Amino acid sequence: MIESINGQSLIGCRHYEVAKMLKDLPKGRTFTLKLTEPRKAFDMISQRSAGGKHSGSAQLGTGRGTLRLRAKGPATVEEQQLSPLQPSAFEEKAIEKVDDLLESYMGIRDTELAATMVELGKDKRNPDEFAEALDEQLGDFAFPDEFVFDVWGAIGDAKVGRY
């Protein structure tokens, strides 16, 4: 786990915040990463207050937002509307498999991101169409080709019932 970049602590930061900091580092310049074992990183994150309530007066959202990183312009958080339709068995299995791939490749668990990827891929005819859709909607993640191909495979397997 990355504990700090150039002395700036990242403890408690979300993965997308760390990714943005890394992306914003000047190309060709030396920088310093301080790494720690994953357990130690999670041990240093403070516990939530009792009952999960926020102690400040700030209003909390629904927790169902999506961070949209843009190549030009600021990042925004878009609140997601809860769908009245439940995901199909195929979608549930595909989301689970894609979430497993996110953890395997990137060390994160993000079912919302996995669901978005499944939604983008479920109607695509080939991995190239899927990769284009990912680049269009989630290009700031810069997913490696191998990961994209594995996600395409997981969606395809779920479609035909291969779990």
UniProtKB/TrEMBL annotation:
InterPro entries: GH2_GIPC (IPR055349), GIPC1/2/3 (IPR017379), PDZ_sf (IPR036034). Residues 63-158 form the GIPC GH2 domain. PANTHER family: PDZ DOMAIN-CONTAINING PROTEIN GIPC1, RGS-GAIP INTERACTING PROTEIN GIPC. This is GIPC GH2 domain-containing protein. The lineage of its organism: Eukaryota, Metazoa, Chordata, Craniata, Vertebrata.
